[in-house]
C-alpha cells in the first residue's frame, strides 16, 4: 500500500504505524503482569487497580477524540470552547458528589445505583438499554467517522473514509478484547501525553502560519458571546449547559466507569481533579484555534479543517507522528465506549436474562466483535449525511443535539432517585419515556416545522424538568406514593 502512495503520504503512514506500534508495546509492557480472574471487576474496572494518573488519562482521552478535534475545529469558531470550559464544572461535580456515591454503593455500572435507589430492576434495564442504544447507533460510529475523516484529510483521498474507520475499529477492538479497561486506560495515558503536547504545538504553528494575525476572520467566529442563531447562544450557558455536563461526566457509563476503577474514593477524586485541570487549561485552545486559523487559510471547509491545517503546517514525519496520536485518541475512545457497552450488556442484560457469566473475558470478546462490525457498517450513515449536506453538516453539533434524546431523560431518573425518597421504579420509567418522546417530537416535528423555535440546549431543561415532574406525578397519582425530598443526605446515612 505504501508504494502506491506519494512519498510524503508514505512517510506519514510509516511514522504513524511505527508510533502506534510503540504505544501498543509500552501498554503491553505495563499491563502484562496483571493477574486476571475473569470477573466483571477485572474486565470492566481494571481490577480496581488504576492509580490517579491512569484515571486522569483515561477520562481525558476517552473524551478527547476526533469528534472534539475534528468536530469542534470543524465549526471554525471560538464559541465551541464552551463545551470544554463547562466540562471543568462537570468534572468537579463528578469528583465531589458522584464518585463517593458510586464507591459507597460498590457499583460496576451507573445503572446499579438506580436499582439500589429505586429498589427495582426495571429502571436499571431501561437506562442500560438507552445507553446501549446511544453507544451503538451514535457514539461508536461517530467516533469512527470523525477519525476516518481526519485521516483522509491528512493523507489525501486516495483511500475512502470507511477504510480508515475500519482499521481504527479493528485495532480498538483488539485492546478491548485482549486488555479490557486496564489496557485502554494505560494506552489513554501514554498517548495522551503525546497528543496534548503535539496539539499545543499545532496551535502555535497554526498561529505562526498567519503571523499571529486573525484579522481576516469574521468577528462572529472569534467571539465567546454567542448570538441567538449561533451553535451556543450565550444564555444557554446558564440553562441547559450545566445539566448536559452533569449527565456527561457524572451519570454516563462511558466516562464514570474510568473514575470507578481506582482502589479508593480519594485516588479516584485525585484522578478526576487532574482531568478537570487538563480540561480547563489545555483543551479549549486545541479544539478551536486550529479551526479558526483554517478558516483564514482555506475558508469554510467544515470538518476537514483540522486535517488540512495539520497537513499544511507540519512536516510529513511530524504530521505522521500526530496522526499516530490522533489514531490513538480514536482507538482509546472507541475502545472505552466499546468496553462500557460490553459492561452494560454483560452485567445488566446477560447475567439477568441469559445466565451467570463465569468468564467475562470470553463474553466480552464475542460482544465486542459484534458491536465493532455494526459500528463500521453505521459509519456509512454519517458519510451519506455529510455528503448530502456538506456545508451545514457538523459532527459535533449533530452529536450534541442527538444526545438530548437520551441525556436529559436518563438524568431525570438519577435526579428523582437521588434527591427523593419513596419514588417507585415504574414512576421513574414513566418520566424517562415522557422525556424521550418529548425531545423526539421537538427534534423531528416541532423544530423543523417552526412550531417551537427554542434552542435545543434550552429545550433540554424543559425535557429534564418535565421528566422529573412526570415521574413524581405518576408516583403520586397512579401509584399512590408520596415522594419526599431528601437531597443527598440519605446516601451518607446508607454509607454509614
Protein architecture, described:
The chain is mostly helical. It has 20 helices and two strands. A two-stranded antiparallel ribbon has the order 1-2. The longest helix has 49 residues. The N terminus and C terminus are likely disordered.
List key phrases describing it.
20 helices; Sodium/glucose cotransporter; 2 strands; disordered C terminus; two-stranded antiparallel ribbon; single chain; 496 residues; disordered N terminus
Give the helix tally: 20
Q: What is the CATH top level name of the largest domain?
A: Mainly Alpha
Low-confidence stretches: 1-7, 490-496
Helix percent reads over 70%
Q: What is the strand arrangement across the widest sheet?
A: 1-2
Mean pLDDT: 85
The major β-sheet equals:
2 strands, antiparallel
Amino acid at each position: 500500500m505504501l508504494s502506491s502512495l506519494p512519498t510524503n503520504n508514505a512517510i506519514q503512514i510509516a511514522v504513524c504505524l511505527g508510533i502506534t506500534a510503540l504505544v501498543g508495546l509500552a501498554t503491553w509492557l505495563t499491563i502484562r503482569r496483571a493477574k486476571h480472574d475473569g470477573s466483571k471487576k477485572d474486565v470492566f474496572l481494571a481490577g480496581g487497580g488504576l492509580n490517579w494518573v491512569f484515571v486522569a488519562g483515561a477520562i481525558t482521552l476517552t473524551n478527547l477524540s476526533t469528534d472534539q478535534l475534528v468536530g469542534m475545529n470543524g465549526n471554525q469558531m471560538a464559541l465551541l470552547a464552551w463545551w470544554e470550559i463547562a466540562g471543568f464544572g462537570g468534572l468537579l461535580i463528578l469528583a465531589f458528589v458522584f464518585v463517593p456515591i458510586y464507591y459507597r454503593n460498590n457499583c460496576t455500572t451507573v445503572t446499579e445505583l438506580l436499582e439500589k435507589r429505586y429498589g427495582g430492576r426495571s429502571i436499571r434495564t431501561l437506562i442500560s438499554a438507552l445507553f446501549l442504544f446511544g453507544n451503538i447507533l451514535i457514539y461508536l460510529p461517530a467516533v469512527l467517522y470523525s477519525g476516518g475523516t481526519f485521516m483522509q484529510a491528512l493523507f489525501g483521498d486516495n483511500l475512502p473514509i470507511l477504510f480508515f474507520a475500519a482499521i481504527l475499529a479493528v485495532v480498538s477492538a483488539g485492546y478491548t478484547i485482549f486488555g479490557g479497561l486496564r489496557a485502554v486506560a494505560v494506552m489513554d495515558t501514554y498517548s495522551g501525553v503525546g497528543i496534548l503536547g503535539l496539539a499545543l504545538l499545532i496551535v502555535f504553528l497554526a498561529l505562526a502560519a498567519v503571523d499571529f494575525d486573525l484579522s481576516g476572520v469574521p468577528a462572529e467566529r472569534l467571539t465567546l458571546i454567542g448570538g441567538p442563531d449561533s451553535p451556543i447562544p450565550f444564555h444557554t450557558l446558564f440553562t441547559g449547559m450545566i445539566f448536559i455536563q452533569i449527565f456527561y461526566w457524572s451519570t454516563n457509563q462511558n466516562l464514570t466507569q474510568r473514575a470507578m476503577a481506582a482502589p479508593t474514593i480519594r485516588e479516584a477524586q485525585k484522578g478526576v481533579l487532574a482531568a478537570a485541570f487538563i480540561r480547563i487549561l489545555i483543551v479549549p485552545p486545541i479544539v478551536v484555534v486550529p479551526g479558526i486559523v483554517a478558516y483564514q487559510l482555506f475558508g469554510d471547509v467544515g470538518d476537514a479543517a483540522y486535517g488540512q491545517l495539520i497537513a499544511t503546517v507540519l512536516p510529513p514525519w511530524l504530521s505522521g507522528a500526530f496522526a499516530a496520536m490522533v489514531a490513538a485518541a480514536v482507538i482509546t475512545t472507541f475502545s472505552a465506549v466499546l468496553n462500557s457497552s460490553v459492561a452494560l450488556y454483560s452485567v445488566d442484560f446477560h447475567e439477568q436474562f441469559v445466565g451467570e457469566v463465569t468468564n467475562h473475558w470470553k463474553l466480552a470478546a464475542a460482544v465486542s466483535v459484534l458491536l465493532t462490525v455494526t459500528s463500521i457498517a453505521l459509519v456509512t450513515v454519517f458519510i451519506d449525511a455529510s455528503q448530502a449536506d456538506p456545508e451545514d453538516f457538523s459532527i459535533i453539533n449533530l452529536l450534541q443535539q442527538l444526545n438530548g434524546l437520551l441525556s436529559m431523560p436518563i438524568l431525570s431518573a438519577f435526579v428523582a432517585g437521588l434527591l427523593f425518597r419513596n419514588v417507585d421504579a415504574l414512576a421513574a420509567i414513566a418520566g424517562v419515556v415522557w422525556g424521550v418522546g418529548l425531545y423526539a417530537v421537538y427534534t423531528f416535528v416541532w423544530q423543523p416545522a417552526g412550531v417551537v423555535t427554542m434552542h435545543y440546549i434550552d429545550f433540554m431543561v424543559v425535557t429534564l424538568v418535565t421528566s422529573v415532574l412526570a415521574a413524581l406525578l405518576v408516583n403520586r397519582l397512579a401509584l399512590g406514593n408520596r415522594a419526599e425530598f431528601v437531597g443527598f443526605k440519605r446516601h451518607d446515612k446508607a454509607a454509614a
